[in-house]
Amino acid sequence: MHRTVVALVLLVAMTVALPRVCFGQGGSSMLLTQVQLPAFPSPQRLSALDTAAAEVAARTSISTQPGSRLVAAGSDDIYSSPLLFLASDRLLPRLTSDQGAELSAWLRTGGTLVIDWEGGGEQLEAFRTSAEELVGQLLPGATLERVPAGHVLLRSFYRLTYASGRIRLVDDLYAAVADDRYAVIVSFNDLLSAFERDRTGQYRYEVVPGGQAQREDAIRLVVNIVAYALCLDYKNEKVHLDYLKSRRNWRLPGDK
């Protein structure tokens, strides 16, 4: 019964409150959240979400809470956020039936899961396979597909031409569809590490090969992902596209 109630709360929030936040008209604020799997005893890049939250708030009309948090995959706490990050430096495990059912239900009610690969090129293909297997468990029948150039995910706030991160292994995002939207998004470029700061406030990791410009693109990608997760219903409506063009001064392919 409790699970049904929280699922309904998330569904109502996604369809009513969150689009207003995207346009700066609502009073809600978002706390960026990472999901923890039992196979990962220590959270990965959790502090990077602190920086990401500050960047989203500074650059958009989306209100974010300072800080970040960690929730367990099988907990009802996942229903308090429409967007979860999963940073991984190892192959993704198969979830227990309870964990898989909880995350699957959350995805079906409108949640978006972002999986971020930190492990570099040596295990890239093995990780891709493990991500595909996890998608199959969470969304039976769904597969990872390349996000095409020009997709709304790449222009929800900034217009991007590639998927940035701390490194540049794969220029494309990959994603799995549920209910005509990307419910699981996979980055292979160690996205969150581009945000990680040390205790002095300095960026912890060098961004290669593109340096600061590549880090800026990584920040823009996270802003786009947050906007996509919060404002999905607006993305392909003309009024939203006109709003973005007027605010960001960019053109869609074919515009003059």
Task: Briefly characterize the structure.
This protein is α/β, with parallel strands linked by helices. The chain has 6 helices and 7 strands, in the order αβαββαβαβββαα.
Structural descriptors:
256 residues; alpha/beta; Rossmann fold; seven-stranded mixed beta sheet; 36% helix; disordered N terminus
Structural class category? alpha/beta
User: CATH superfamily assignment?
Assistant: Domain of unknown function DUF4159
Give the beta-strand count: 7
Shape: globular
Percentage of residues assigned to helices: 25-40%
| Mean pLDDT figure | 83
Strand order of the largest sheet: 2-1-3-4-7-6-5
Q: Supply the CATH architecture.
A: 3-Layer(aba) Sandwich
Beta-strand content: 5-15%
Low-pLDDT runs of 5+ residues are 1-27, 234-241, 247-256
Listing every helix as H and every strand as E from the N terminus to the C terminus, the arrangement reads HEHEEHEHEEEHH
What is the fold-level CATH name, i.e. the topology? Rossmann fold
Describe the main β-sheet briefly: 7 strands, mixed
In CATH's first tier, which class applies?
Answer: Alpha Beta
How many H/I helical runs?
A: 6
Q: Tell me the radius of gyration.
A: 17 Å
User: In the residues, how many domains can be counted?
Assistant: 1
User: Distance between the terminal alpha carbons, to the nearest Å?
Assistant: 54 Å
Structure, described:
This protein has about 260 residues and is of the alpha/beta class. It is about 35% helix and about 15% strand. The protein has one domain: 3-Layer(aba) Sandwich (Rossmann fold), CATH 3.40.50.12140. Helix 2 crosses helix 5 (about 210-230). It is globular.
